[in-house]
Design a protein that fits this description.
two-stranded parallel sheet, Pyridoxal phosphate-dependent transferase (chains A, B), seven-stranded mixed β-sheet, transferase (chains A, B), 13 strands, homodimer, 13 helices, alpha/beta, globular, about 40% helix
Chain lengths: ~400, ~400
């Protein structure tokens, strides 16, 4: 069984998919924290610290913004947006670079918003001109951007799009789906004047799945406060959670729904590890690993789903299968070598490609050789499947 | 620091509140399971087994029903009910025995349902006559019952209420909030003809918070399938999760939103421990401990919030403070002795009582002396606070 040199964990297949990723020993130990009351001074301290460190991860110092970490999933972040920042009948512009925009649009429609999708060709990004002309067609309450679409590995330029939105339609809230980007791609929440970035723990944050994590700007919270009608979700309501988050960050216990104590301990453990080195170094390490994987894949003669240089994710790579090799020919052979990769997800091309996740400790811990093993496993398995590099 | 004799966990205060409870070493070890893909054969097996064992916990064999375990919280179970089993404009009868009925009613209203609350006096239950006459006033799509209200410790007779609903209003769905009852109070889902029982892991199931757990009957799922309009939540949608749960239970991978892999491992670990002994023995052990705690509290001269014998929870006790002793006089003194108890929650009497949770391993493991310590700590702290028993 493949196993990293640097881990004390029991031997297990290396999970190198676009989330969940491999976790550090310290994060897993925090998941096993003995029981604590959710309103105990010990846990209030942990929750408050985690919310404060999340600000650093989002490069946020403006206290009118608020970080949130709530039991749930990345998906639940869409409900928070759709139920709090847009009201029934209002318009949303959904920038589409893959599978996840379809889902976000469906979520917005579920709560009565009116999504308009602007779609890029598979594997490509939208031009700023296309976004600008869409923005001018009507007044959009929100625009949503998938920073990294996990189904394609396409990286959107959220900084430029946010600046464009602010210039063309200043009141429109800029919502970033950062599920596969927070912790691996640069995001400067305050500087880039973003309104909400949502994410999940099991990707570049390096914490087991089970949380919905996001940050909302002062502008977004003001839009929420000015709603004509209450939020259209009970569990995913800013009205319920905003005071709870504010209280915990101020180190005061608060209650709406029992928080996932162990998952929050794990979040704090990982944030401490992440923030122990400058974020710029973390992003650079991921970029180096991404370049290495992408160039090796190219040397194997394989093509990426994400076609445009400079718009390819640094935390994952989506790779078209070579002619004559199907997913069931490849992934089980790689799995036999102790490496778990992912199949396709974008429904129009799902059987034609596979995905490698390169985020978190497998990338940042230089004592680990996870991707030496993974790239060798891909090469050897392709050969076994009859593809000659 | 107080610590159970039987645990290998680091010394920590004993959490004896109405959830989260103390966890077994095996459950905490499962929380630290190394990373697994959410669609790996290993995890599919674990998720499927957990869903199947949940059926045993609910004493369910009718396969038209379906168990669910989803990242979230007990609270999210209310959203699942309100967004899937009732449509905007339809009526709900909410039987009120404490704080949590107010919240459930608010959740129903959030999604457009029309809740009618039938309120018992604080600490008491509703008579069947009162429920019957309310049921006859209009056609209710659902009736909700809090099995154990965690704010009062009142235990409702869900078997008799369910039978009454079925007799008087056969099409009305019977919804049980079992957050503080599943795993400690008898619930016979099929025999009692219930439609949905929702719960959370951190109480008598003995698993860290972070999941919404429920079972829905074939009748409830048919009502869902016959909706005139789609569910009014995206994340809390049966349309999204029902096929996922069915697939995992059939040991097939499925995807809507990444499940909390480690929390599901912990759920399976705890269900295996719970179901290793007959449920009747488990319920009896909790009843014995509850009787012991309630009679000791009475010997201390203290009164319970739940006033009616036979309608008092077996997993928690809500205790009025004696004259002249306030919560800040008592709980910190108990905490100094290494025992964490909870304050009041029912808003009308919140400062006047405290709560003891007696669920899970602290009750069932005969090698543990958690409640010897807790009862002694209460007695000694009362004395220190100036109350003579």
């Amino acid at each position: 069984m493949a196993q990293s040199k640097a881990s004390a964990q029991a031997p297990h297949p290396l999970t190198l998919i676009p989330g969940p990723v491999e976790f550090t020993d310290e994060v897993l130990a925090a998941m096993a924290t003995p029981s604590q009351s959710h309103v105990s001074p010990q846990f209030v301290e942990v929750y408050g610290d985690a919310l404060a460190l999340l600000r650093q991860l989002f490069i946020n110092t403006d206290k009118r913004a608020q970080t949130f970490a709530i039991a749930g999933a990345g998906t639940l972040g869409w409900d928070f947006v759709a139920a709090n920042l847009i009201e029934p009948g209002e318009d949303a512009l959904v920038l589409h670079t893959g599978y996840f925009a379809d889902s976000f649009a469906e979520c917005i429609a579920t709560y009565g918003g009116k999504p308009t999708q602007l779609k890029a060709p598979i594997g490509d990004v939208l031009t700023l001109d296309a976004v600008e002309s869409a923005l001018k067609q009507k007044k959009f309450k929100i625009v949503t951007i998938t920073h990294v679409d996990t189904s394609t590995g396409v990286l959107s330029d959220i900084k430029s799009i946010a600046a464009l939105v602010r210039a063309v339609s200043p009141e429109t809230l800029v919502i970033v789906d950062g599920v596969c980007s927070v912790g691996v791609e640069e995001i400067r929440f305050d500087d880039w004047d973003l309104d909400l970035v949502l994410t999940a723990p099991q990707k570049a944050i390096g914490v087991p799945a089970g949380l919905s994590i996001f940050i909302a700007s002062g502008r977004a919270l003001d839009v929420f406060r000015a709603r004509k009608a209450p939020p259209t979700s009970y569990y995913a309501s800013f009205a319920k959670w905003l005071p709870v988050m504010q209280n915990y960050e101020a180190k005061k216990p608060s209650y709406f729904s029992t928080p996932p104590v162990q998952n929050i301990h794990a979040l704090l453990a990982s944030l401490k590890q992440i923030l122990a080195v400058p974020l710029a170094d973390r992003f650079a390490a991921h970029a180096r690993m991404s370049n290495r994987i992408k160039s090796t894949i190219a040397n194997y003669g394989l093509k990426q789903v994400a076609v445009r240089e400079g718009y390819q994710a640094n935390g994952m790579t989506a790779v078209y299968l070579p002619e004559g090799v199907a997913l069931p020919d490849l992934l089980p052979r790689i799995a036999k070598r102790g490496i778990v990769l992912a199949g396709g997800l974008h429904k129009e091309i799902a059987t034609k490609y596979f995905r490698i996740g390169h985020m978190g400790v497998s990338v940042t811990d230089e004592d680990r050789d996870d991707f030496d093993k993974a790239l060798a496993a891909i090469k050897d398995s392709l050969a076994e499947a009859g593809y000659t590099i």
